[in-house]
Amino acid sequence: MTSPPPLSGIRVLELAGLAPGPFAGLLLADYGATVLRLDRATPETHGPNPLSPTRDQLTRRKSSIAVDMRSPGGLSFIKALVPHVDILIDPFRPGVLEKAGLCPKTVLTALNPRLIVARMTGFRRDGKYAQMAGHDINYIAVSGVLSMLGREGPREDPSTWKELRALFTKLFKEKTRAEWETIFDGTDACCTPVLTQGELEEQEYDQRPLVTLRDSPSLAIVSNAKEEKDVGVRAAKGQGEGVEGDGWNEDGLSPGVGGEVVLEEWVGWRRGRQFEVERGGLVFKEGSKL
């Protein structure tokens, strides 16, 4: 008899956002957790005709509810649900949850002291970039990776590009890198220095090793995963040793689909009793019995 996936029974509330957050939820779902995705409410969600399913592979094995976090009823719904979940995935930039009235320190963990809040920020949670927005190029710049890329010598660019390159080169050479850092630090301009490995070592930045998984006790992604002879291929396809499964078929996930079933399984909530639908979003019914 095989054992269930290691995260079976774990409840995850994933706030819909960009790829890092949904990808984290995907991994947790593949390892057995029940992941409830909280999407933005639109007039069509939770209605008789759901929105067309997405082909986004990051919604695998998830269910969805739609909630308007900006409405009092939607905010009350989230606060009522938080005590019943184990993990909350926050995909937003620093300060968004706090502004919404869901500060992890003063609100979320006060409602549920055992709650794990996974904050998917681009930069580390401390240091000079902690509150700044950024993109991939900024992250690889300050990690030392970007300094090792590119090619030496001039490049043949269209005339317009040459003019822009000359203009930006002239402007950036008017100040030192340290002066530009002073200007951009703490802003949302997504402008960060290109650090070398030597500079990282001098500043004692954390450099974490890569992680390689040999076996993966997750649910099957392909039906013939156990038949693969190469263990590395088998693990990469999502079927580790000791976990049965017939694979997985992607039908897509529509916002607001499947989540009400999960709410009833988790806490016994039903539409019309503990919550209602307003403008496509779930709202908590004040005075209802939890």
Record the SSE blueprint:
Blueprint: E1 11-15, H1 20-30, E2 34-40, E3 62-67, H2 72-81, E4 87-90, H3 96-100, H4 104-111, E5 116-119, H5 136-142, H6 159-172, H7 177-184, H8 197-202, H9 231-236, H10 259-267, E6 275-278, E7 281-284
Family: Belongs to the CoA-transferase III family.
Region (Disordered): 40-59
InterPro entries: CoA-transferase_III (IPR050509), CoA-Trfase_fam_III (IPR003673), CoA-Trfase_III_dom3_sf (IPR044855), CoA-Trfase_III_dom_1_sf (IPR023606)
Oligomer: single chain
Counted by DSSP, the helix tally is 10
CA-CA gap between termini: 37 Å
The total number of structural domains is 1
Mean pLDDT level: 83
What spatial form do the alpha-carbon principal axes imply? Answer: elongated
Q: How are the strands of the biggest sheet laid out side by side?
A: 3-2-1-4-5
* Helix vs. strand class: alpha/beta
Report on the architecture of this protein.
29% of the residues lie in helices and 12% in strands. It has a single domain, classed as Rossmann fold (3-Layer(aba) Sandwich). It has 290 residues and is α/β, with parallel strands linked by helices. The protein has helices at 20-30, 72-81, 96-100, 104-111, 136-142, 159-172, 177-184, 197-202, 231-236, 259-267; strands spanning 11-15, 34-40, 62-67, 87-90, 116-119, 275-278, 281-284. The strands form two sheets. Strands 3-2-1-4-5 form a five-stranded parallel sheet, with helices on both faces. A two-stranded antiparallel ribbon has the order 6-7. The protein starts with 10 loop residues before the first strand and ends in a 6-residue tail after the last strand.
